[in-house]
Amino acid sequence: MTFAFPDLETLTFDEVEPGIGVLRMNRPDRLNSQTVTMFHEYLAAGRALRDSQLRALILTGTGERAFCAGFDLDEIHVITEMGVREFLKFQETATGGIQSLRHLPFPVIAAVHGPATGGGMALALAADIRLAAETLKMSAAFVKVGLSMGELGTSYNLARLVGPARAAEIGFTGRIVEADEALRIGLVNHVYPREKLFDEALTLARQIALNSPGGVRMSKRAIQRNTEIGSYEAALELENRGQALLTRTEDMPVALAAFKDKRVPEFTGR
């Protein structure tokens, strides 16, 4: 590992291959459910990873049972005992943690198996790409505990992935979306047998890592920003600036020459 990653209680990180990392929720005995500590650690992980030279990150849960089953109900009393100001501070910590992973400069691939509910669904939606096992059970279950789908970025990301009407149905009912439906409505990119899920995520990460680091990062920035800005002209301005900057890198002429020679380029990220 070429950078320092903190020693965390609820998350683990490994650089499984040069440039490819794996961040795991690490509470398998509790279905990798979230705690106040975990939300703080999302932010710590995001800060550590932001300045790494990773090409791609796989986000998944430890063990065979779950990706992340939302907030741990054994800690729910912590939330109910908070005053309004204290709860708002907690919300800002929780959303800031997930946002720090969503805004990592390199692609994030969520490898989702079993339950991904509530905050676990929000976490999966924050990834750039979602690969699912056949065991997937995803739900925006906030209404089941007296909260709204306007939580942890879910209302924003879900509506943009599946459309407002489908997002409304999923959010208003709190029902479970299983793998086949998730694939059909565009909630996940691909579905695989559970035993193949991680290998498929790693294969995808390798494919991404073969490309220009600068080009991939600018592509991610363009996709994310263009879901947030309000006009076609603003989108073109963002794209034009990114392409102009990439022509000034060392990688671009190297890639162009390799393309002409029909060989694989060797990217340096400079």
Content-based structural category: alpha/beta
Low-pLDDT sequence parts: none
Work out the helicity level.
40-55%
Biggest sheet overview = 6 strands, mixed
Mean of residue pLDDT values: 89
Count of DSSP helices?
11
Query: In one word, what is the shape?
Result: globular
Number of strands: 9
* H-E order: EEHEHHEEHEEHHEHEHHHH
* Biggest sheet, spatial arrangement of strands: 1-2-3-4-6-9
Strand content: 5-15%
CA gyration radius, whole angstroms: 19 Å
Kindly report the oligomeric state of this protein: single chain
Distance between the termini: 19 Å
Question: Which helices and strands appear, and what pairs or packs with what?
Answer:
Elements (H helix, E strand, L loop, with lengths): L10 E7 L2 E6 L10 H15 L5 E6 L14 H5 L3 H19 L5 E5 L2 E3 L1 H7 L3 E5 L3 E3 L14 H9 L1 H10 L3 E2 H6 L5 E3 L4 H13 L3 H14 L5 H15 L4 H11 L9
Parallel strand pairs: 2-3, 3-4, 4-6, 5-7, 6-9
Antiparallel strand pairs: 1-2, 7-8
